[in-house]
Amino acid sequence: MERQRAITRRAALRLLGGGMLGGLLLSACGGNATPTPTRAPSSAASPTAAATPTPAQAATATPATTTATAAASPTVIATTQASNQGPVLVGVLGDLSGTYSSLGQNVLRGMQLYLEQVQNKGGGRPIELHSEDCAGSPDQTLSKTRKLVEQDRVHILAGVTLSNEAAAIRDYVVQQQVPLIVANAGWQPLTRDPKVRSPYLFRVSFANGQYEAPFGDYAYNKLGYKRVILTALDYSAGHEKADAFRKRFEQAGGKIAGEVYVPMNTQDFGPYLQRIQQYQADAVWAFYSGADAVRFVLQYTDFGLKDKFPLTGAGDTVDENILNQEGDAALNVVTSLHYSPLYNSPENKAFVDAFRAKYNAQANQFAYQGYLAARVIVEALNATGGKVEDKQAFLQALRQVHFTGPTGEFRFNPESQGPIITVLIRKVQKLPDGSYGNVVIDTIGNVDDLSF
After folding, report:
1. Containing domain of residue 182, as a range?
2. Do residues 400 and 410 make contact, with C-beta atoms less than 8 angstroms apart?
3. Both 307 and 199 in a single domain?
4. 192 pLDDT more than 90
5. Which end of the chain is more exposed for a tag (fewer CB within 10 A), N or C?
6. In this structure, is residue 43 part of a structural domain?
């Protein structure tokens, strides 16, 4: 009888995932990830034990079955303005529609918030954002990047939501010699692989695994889990994050009881939850994001698995941009991430208050990353007197950016040009006002993207 009830309620949730939930997540269920690769570097072998995909391979690491075609090497487009007294043009690439729209929209909001606080100026020059919707498609991301560079003549690119989108544009951006500040996509080779990283590529968010690897130690040593099931989205980020957790968890002495990977934009998780149910373990570690995360958490709880396997994982799975939609199903989920609006610092309180005042919404990791991306750009412009056309001076100023942000000191690893972060261990709890929040229960400091 209990089995029949779970299946019936899951069917109802399937309808919810396909209709009402999409509306709640700003039409978040409407996008498909359709990759088109670019020409890969001559070699993209990862410094880690596992082989790293080339940008072209990573761009196609989605459930889509599009035939790959190599992009021709483009001619470098000059972006120098006639005078450095005109506006600094920043092209923002983000998933503003589709399954991951909540991610891209919040990155853009975070950038807009910071720029508003500095009167939309840097180095004495006005700053203009030109945003483009990538809709979860690597093919569209490359097209929009070309448009921003060749038609809009932007000086700087920022944003990028998904790992396969970052892989799709890597070669073009480097060939065009346009500085790119990635505000979300965690594709590992972008900053970790010496053959893929570039002086033009920076990241303010994380490399996939950067906050998952330390949680592998934590889950074994602090939470006491000895056997864990891994489940994640079946694309490059999902595998990179799961592999980073697995490596540290096994090094600590733990065992992986099983692994279940799920296609992006899945509506009915039933078949995958049945597979999870068959394993024997102490807990489940999960990575999901956007609308996929909402559907997974709701159906995981409804299926009765939360009572059998405590749910842990990457913080994206219960991020504030979707947490209230997950509701009680997310209670007591323990995750690792580099941000929480409940982190206790005056800088974070100011950011959270300003975000709520402007957007009437809770701050989240994606808004935080957008906020950092905008500040990094402004700091470098201030250091160069706004001379963004002097690319080498501007790149050097980017490398030297150093400030105290919402979660403490922000700086780039000089070798990778990725961020050095504080990993926060968070637990979902109901707050006094009746909302849900990720309460910080522990921290792991100074984690760089070459440390795992």
Report:
1. 88-207+344-419
2. no
3. no
4. yes
5. N
6. no
The string of pLDDT tens digits covering residues 214-253 is 999 999 999 999 999 999 999 999 999 999 999 999 999 9
Question: Do 157 and 199 have their domain in common?
Answer: yes
pLDDT band at 429 (very low <50, low <70, confident <90, very high): very high
Q: How far apart are CA 289 and CA 279, in angstroms?
A: 24
202 and 94 in one domain?
yes
Distance CA(176)–CA(174), nearest Å, equals: 5
Q: How far is CA 313 from CA 230, 248, 335, in A?
A: 9, 14, 5
* CA 329 – CA 229 distance, rounded (Å): 19
The pair of three-digit structure tokens given for residue 331, joined into one six-digit string: 């209670």
In b/e form, how buried is each residue of 182-204, taking b as 16+ CB within 10 angstroms?
bbbbbbbbbbbbebbbbebbbbb
What is the number of structural domains in the chain?
2
Q: Any idea what DSSP says for residue 318?
A: G
CA dihedral 145, 147, 148, 151 (to 10 degrees): 150
- Average predicted confidence (pLDDT) for the chain: 86
pTM exceeding the 0.90 threshold for the entire prediction: no
Do 241 and 323 lie in a common domain? yes
Distance CA 280, CA 117 (A): 52
Q: Are residues 431 and 379 in the same domain?
A: no
Give the pLDDT band of residue 55 (cuts 50, 70, 90): low
**Residue 327 near residue 306 (C-beta atoms within 8 A):** no
Specify the pLDDT at position 245: 98
Domain contains 9: no
Q: Which of 203, 132, 138, 205 is nearest to 171 (CA)?
A: 138
356 lies in the same domain as 393: yes
- Specify the residue for token string 């983000």: 94
Mark whether 171 and 310 lie in a shared domain.
no
In the chain, count of helices (H) and strands (E)? 16, 15
State whether 117 and 147 are in the same domain: yes
**What mean pLDDT comes out for the span 94-121?**
97
Tens of pLDDT along 69-105?
Answer: 333 344 555 444 434 579 999 999 999 999 899 999 9
> Is residue 137 assigned to a domain?
yes
In a domain, 160, yes or no: yes
Judged by DSSP in three states, 428 sits in strand
**pLDDT mean over 41-65:** 38
Cα 95 to Cα 133: distance, rounded to the nearest angstrom:
5
